[in-house]
Design brief:
alpha/beta; 291 residues; 11 helices; 19% strand; seven-stranded mixed beta sheet; binds S-adenosyl-L-homocysteine; globular; 7 strands
C-alpha cells in the first residue's frame, strides 16, 4: 500500500520489518482519539505525543469549575511545548539551509516548532501511516508543506542520503528501538559536527533492573525502556559524543502531578510518579555531536 506521493516506495513490508514494529505501528494507528493528545493539540495546532516540564500555575486547579478543565488542558499543553523548546535549545546553531530530521515524529508538533525557529527543512519519520497523514495535513494547513514533510519510514533504516542531516532528534521514541541500530543509522545520516538530541525516559542502573513501575509503563505503551547506561554505550559505539546531559526528572514531576488531577488522565500517571520519585526512572536529555 502506498502512503504519500513523496514516499511512493514505502510499503508496509519495507517499513515494518518485525512483528514488534507492526504492533507499535498498530498502537499509534488505532490510539488516535486519546483526549490527552487531541485536546491539548487543539489549543494552538501543535500536536504533541510527549510529556511536559516546568512548574505549573496552581490557580488552574481553582476558580470557576466551568473553565477549570480548559485551563488545565492549556497549562499541560504549555508544559509540553516548553519541553520541546528545551530540546530545540540543545540543537545548537542551525542555518535555514540546514536539514533536520525528527525520528519518530508523531503528529509533528516538535517538527513544526523546529521549522518556526530555524526556518529550515525538516523531515519527520514515523511508522504510523495515520500519523504521517495527520501531520502532512497540518503542514499544508500551516502553509509549510514545501519544507516540513512527514514520511512513512523506519528510523532504523530511513533511506535518506548519508551525511545529509545537520541535526536529528528523538523526542520520546528511543524506547521502541534497539539503540545500537538506531545510532548506527543516525551516525550515517549526520554530517560531521552534526548534533543529535534525545529526550527520553530511562531506568536507573544504580537502583538495578526494571522496577515494577517501569515495567507497567513498558506494558502500557508496548515499549522497552532502556537503562541509562545503554544510551552512552550505543552513542560511543557510533561516533556520537555527548556535550550536554540534563536530568529533567525534577522538572517533569509537576507535569505528572497536574496530569493526574486533569480530566485527561489515562491511569498511567501513578506509575510515572512512583518511578520518578523512587529514583528507578529518569527523564533525561542528551545532546551529542557526530565526530
Ligand atoms: N516525537 C513525537 C512522538 C512521540 S510518540 C512527539 O514528541 O510528539 C512515539 C513515536 O515513535 C510514534 O510516532 C511512533 O510511530 C514512533 N516510532 C516508534 N518506532 C519507530 C520506528 N522504528 N521508526 C520510526 N518511528 C517510530
Amino acid at each position: 500500500m502506498t502512503t504519500t506521493s513523496t514516499d511512493a516506495t514505502s510499503t508496509d513490508a519495507s517499513v515494518l520489518r518485525t512483528d514488534y514494529q507492526r504492533a507499535v505501528a498498530a498502537y499509534w494507528n488505532t490510539n488516535r482519539n486519546d483526549p490527552v493528545n487531541l485536546e491539548l493539540g487543539h489549543v494552538d495546532g501543535l500536536y504533541h505525543h510527549h510529556y511536559g516540564i516546568g512548574e505549573y500555575d496552581p490557580s488552574v486547579l481553582e476558580g470557576p469549575p466551568e473553565t477549570r478543565d480548559d485551563r488545565i488542558i492549556r497549562e499541560m499543553h504549555r508544559l509540553e511545548t516548553m519541553q520541546a523548546d528545551v530540546l530545540l535549545d540543545n540543537l545548537g546553531r542551525i542555518a535555514p539551509t540546514d536539514r533536520l530530521m525528527d525520528g519518530g515524529s508523531g503528529r509533528g508538533g516538535t517538527s513544526f516548532m523546529a521549522h518556526q525557529r530555524f526556518g529550515c527543512r525538516v523531515d519527520g519519520v514515523t511508522i504510523s501511516e495515520y500519523q504521517v497523514g495527520f501531520a502532512n495535513e497540518r503542514a499544508s494547513e500551516r502553509g509549510v508543506d514545501d519544507t516540513v514533510r512527514f514520511h512513512f519510514r523506519n528510523m532504523l533504516d530511513t533511506g535518506f542520503d548519508a551525511g545529509c542531516m545537520r541535526g536529528i532528534w528523538t523526542n520520546e521514541t528511543t524506547m521502541y528501538v534497539d539503540l545500537f541500530e538506531l545510532y548506527a543509522e543516525f551516525s550515517r545520516l549526520l554530517s560531521f559536527g552534526g548534533r543529535y538530541v534525545c529526550i527520553t525516559g530511562c531506568y536507573n542502573d544504580v537502583t538495578g533492573g526494571r522496577s515494577k513501575s517501569v515495567s507497567r509503563i513498558d506494558e502500557h505503551y508496548t515499549c522497552n525502556i532502556h537503562p541509562r547506561s545503554e544510551y552512552f554505550k550505543a552513542m560511543a559505539a557510533n561516533g556520537l559524543v555527548p556535550i550536554n546531559v540534563l536530568d529533567l526528572t525534577g522538572q517533569t514531576i509537576p507535569y505528572w502531578e497536574l496530569r493526574a488531577k486533569s480530566p485527561v488522565a489515562t491511569g498511567i500517571e501513578e506509575p510515572f510518579l512512583t518511578a520518578y520519585r523512587e529514583g528507578s526512572f529518569h527523564y533525561l536529555l542528551i545532546a551529542a555531536d557526530r565526530v
